[in-house]
Amino acid sequence: MLKTLAKIVLAAAATMVVPQMASADIIEFDVTSYNQGSSCAHGLYVGSIRNNCQRRFDLQDGSLFAIDTAQQTATFTGSAINSKGTVANIDLNFTDFLETTSGSGLAFKNGSGVGYNPVTDTPDIDFFSGGFGTIDIGGTVFTLNQADPFRGNTLFQFGTGANDKTLDFGGSAWLNLLDPYGRSLGYVDINFNLARRPGTPVPAPAGLGLMALGLAALGLGLRRRKQASIG
Fold first, then answer.
1. Which tens digit of pLDDT belongs to each residue from 133-167?
2. Checking phi first, is residue 149 left (phi over 0); if not, alpha (psi -120 to 50) or beta?
3. pTM for this predicted structure
């Protein structure tokens, strides 16, 4: 349904007289912690690297999730801070786009006991099975294991319900990070909400598969504003 809507939007846009410009292939989203404002607010959890609330890093303003609809890749860049003021600088890249887990031999992330199944419950969630990049935590650089980037045979997931803590529009993953000596850190988790940045242009037709994500985000925001005005 969303892909059909995307085609309608593009067809309507084609009938308008507008200045010539380069095709827009990038959709940008602001990233925030899934439980922003709560005790130990965080979007990044680093397990054994720190203790108690210091394990939890709150994503900061300016953090960005950007999707290249032409290349079918994405980036997650930004920073997060824990209760002791330690800064984590995030620079992650995601590759090998999948519209479903079916036939991939990989699992979706569902560690919160919410009973959510993105394969059967909604069409508005997509995945990446590959990734690379770093997270610099307090000056120590940890590297995403390119051979096995997501722990537990899972994927990076994004879309409506992909934040498996709250089922909000966002993303999540269990990251397989390596320390400077090549040792795996164990449990590292990201869960975050996404909000489409105002003014993000409509992507080129080649990105219709990922354009559904942008339309879903836009529709979600409109529904929430309507519900708020009714309430």
1. 999 999 999 999 999 999 878 899 998 888 877 77
2. alpha
3. 0.77
